[in-house]
Design brief:
Radius of gyration: 20 Å
Number of domains: 2
Structural class: alpha+beta
Oligomer: single chain
CATH topology of the largest domain: Aminoglycoside 3'-phosphotransferase, Chain: A, domain 2
Number of strands: 10
Number of helices: 11
Distance between the termini: 50 Å
CATH class of the largest domain: Alpha Beta
CATH architecture of the largest domain: Alpha-Beta Complex
Length: 312
């Protein structure tokens, strides 16, 4: 359980002042935790706000870039929590706090594949220019040497990792470079966890901090791969019917999904083994590794999904 300490209360008072949110009506309320940080609900005289307390400092320039994409997406009709700037026009306070308007969500109800496909089409039609090149996290495989080093590092999952290692290496062989492809700014974390149904109706897209350069078609393939097959087919149909510009045509389109899957597995395993991480972080990481190895991504899964998407 996350405790609201005196330091947290003081930090939120600073946030309210710098972001001109109005006087707090009480202490902040812990709302959620993601991999990048904590989310607090802060009620003030000016309204209700989602304050993200980042676990690691973020560069203001990076935050401004993702905020620019959010504004472009909102202008194109994508619903999202409105980002709030400081009195100086900055996105961040001390590199660790950022603020959004609070949006009430429907609890325990997941969006459909068709809803996910339609909102992805709208996102891809934004065509926001990319700043820089695609990050290695989304474009480069872990590679045989990386997998073997991870296996040698040990851990309670060593045997499970050893069993799927040939498949992980085979997946890496499918990855192709995005050079020369159509790269724009993408959300990069679209899924049922971040596309939610709003309490006042419609769907809303959350958690934009991971956005950056990517090939939209590869983002689409990654989204589909995370869904049950029938929902993936419905999502793809809705995407195309909603004017989505991308087409999934072959295994190479899953390069982003394969690269991220590998780096996530490696990241969680390294975190779980690190003595520098908190017990909570290590426990969460162990759970993630166990879950990923219990239902690993495979070349067969990609081939099966491709066949389903090609059916008339």
């Amino acid at each position: 359980m996350t405790v609201v300490t005196a330091d947290v209360v003081r930090a939120m008072a600073d946030v309210a002042r710098v972001f001109r949110l109005g006087k707090p009506l009480g202490p902040p309320v812990y709302a959620a935790r993601g991999e990048l940080g904590l989310i607090w609900r802060l009620d003030t005289e000016g309204g209700s706000w989602a304050v993200k307390e980042l676990l690691s400092p973020v560069d203001e320039g990076v935050a401004r870039a993702d905020t620019a994409f959010q504004h472009a997406a909102a202008d194109a009709g994508v619903r999202l929590p409105r980002p709030v700037l400081t009195s100086e026009g900055d996105v961040l306070l001390r590199g660790r706090f950022r603020v959004y308007e609070w949006v009430d969500l429907v609890v325990g109800e997941q969006v459909t594949g068709a809803e996910l496909g339609a909102v992805t089409a709208r996102l891809h039609r934004v065509g926001h220019p990319a700043s820089g090149t695609v990050l290695p996290w989304f474009s480069e495989p872990v590679g045989r040497a990386g997998w073997q080093a991870l296996l040698a590092a040990g851990g309670e999952w060593e045997q499970a990792l050893g069993r799927v290692l040939p498949e992980l290496i085979a997946l890496d062989d499918l990855v192709v470079a995005p050079d020369g492809g159509h790269v724009t700014t993408c959300h990069c974390d679209v899924g049922v966890g971040n596309v939610r149904r709003a309490a006042d109706g419609g769907v809303i897209v959350l958690d934009w901090e991971n956005c950056g350069p990517a090939r939209p078609g590869w983002e689409l393939a990654k989204i589909l791969l995370d869904l049950p097959q029938d929902e993936a087919v419905a999502a793809y149909s809705a995407y195309r019917a909603s004017g989505g510009p991308e087409v999934i045509s072959g295994p190479g389109d899953f390069s982003m999904a394969i690269a991220e899957h590998g780096h996530l597995l490696e990241f969680y395993a390294r975190r779980a083994l690190s003595e520098q991480e908190s017990p909570d972080n290590r426990a969460r990481a162990r759970d993630r590794v166990s879950t990923m190895l219990s239902r690993p991504l495979t070349t067969k899964k990609i081939d099966t999904l491709l066949a389903a998407l090609r059916r008339p």
